[in-house]
Design goal:
- Helix content is 35%, strand content 18%.
- The protein is an alpha/beta fold.
- The longest helix is centred in the middle third of the chain and has 16 residues.
- The strands form two sheets. It has a seven-stranded mixed sheet, sandwiched between helices.
Length: 239
């Protein structure tokens, strides 16, 4: 396995696409290695089912340009940060050896999001402890701790610590979102309505990215919070 620069974790398939897919596309286009790990199959989602979600996830990955995407098969709605679950996440961190981890918001409408964000952050720390032994695909793994953990912002408003310009990739980003067509507005659907199946949800999603973009003088941006202060060595890098 090629060492990856960025590893994005998600409680459910579609979390990454909805929250930070522009950032993923941007970094892939810049030549960075990016992989995704979905914790669950999203089997409790009101619309569709896990088989449909798996097909949608595959299509979204192709649109993003992500070559490696893994689903850990944890129980949607009920996974907890127990030892077995933490070890499964540690195995993925040690497998991909990312410098940066992206993961769910620490506060959000869906309780799985906050649990996933805290779970991944905890596993990232434990992954650096040499006395925790793991084996993956019959290979003994070495300790690995990423340099940074950033939480993408989802349903609830959270003031971002930094914003990433995704303007050139907005259309491709939204194509990856729409890969999950079963989730969104369809006047012919007989499935129950959800907060993201409303007629206006995608407009609201775009509006938030435009609002963040305006703050840094670009058209569209995605927001993140950081576990520690973000450092740079060149003021000219700041928009």
């Amino acid at each position: 396995m090629i060492k990856h620069d960025i590893l994005a974790f998600a409680a459910h398939p579609d979390d990454v696409e909805l929250a930070c897919s522009g950032t993923i596309i941007s970094h892939i286009q810049q030549g960075y290695q990016v992989a995704i790990v979905d914790l669950t199959a999203g089997e409790l989602g009101t619309r569709g089912n896990k088989e449909i979600r798996a097909q949608e996830s595959l299509l979204a990955s192709q649109i993003l340009g992500v070559k490696h995407r893994i689903n850990l098969g944890l129980e949607d709605g009920f996974f907890e940060a127990d030892k077995n679950t933490l070890l499964k996440v540690i195995e993925q961190i040690r497998h991909f050896k990312p410098d940066i981890i992206l993961c769910n918001a620490l506060h959000d409408r869906h309780p799985d999001h906050a649990r996933a964000g805290a779970l991944v952050a905890r596993a990232a720390f434990l992954s650096g402890l040499h006395k925790i032994k793991t084996t993956y695909q019959n290979n003994t793994q070495q300790a690995w701790r990423p340099q940074s953990i950033y939480h993408y912002i989802q349903d609830r408003w959270i003031n971002p610590d930094f914003l990433i310009d995704i303007s050139p990739y907005f259309e491709q980003r939204m194509k990856s979102v729409m890969a999950y067509a079963s989730q969104f507005y369809n006047p012919q659907s007989i499935e129950p309505d959800t907060p993201i199946s409303s007629q206006h949800f995608l407009q609201q999603l775009e509006g938030r990215m435009m609002q963040w973009g305006r703050l840094i003088n670009v058209k569209y941006a995605e927001g993140f919070t950081a576990e520690r202060p973000v450092g740079i060595n060149n003021l000219k890098q700041l928009l």
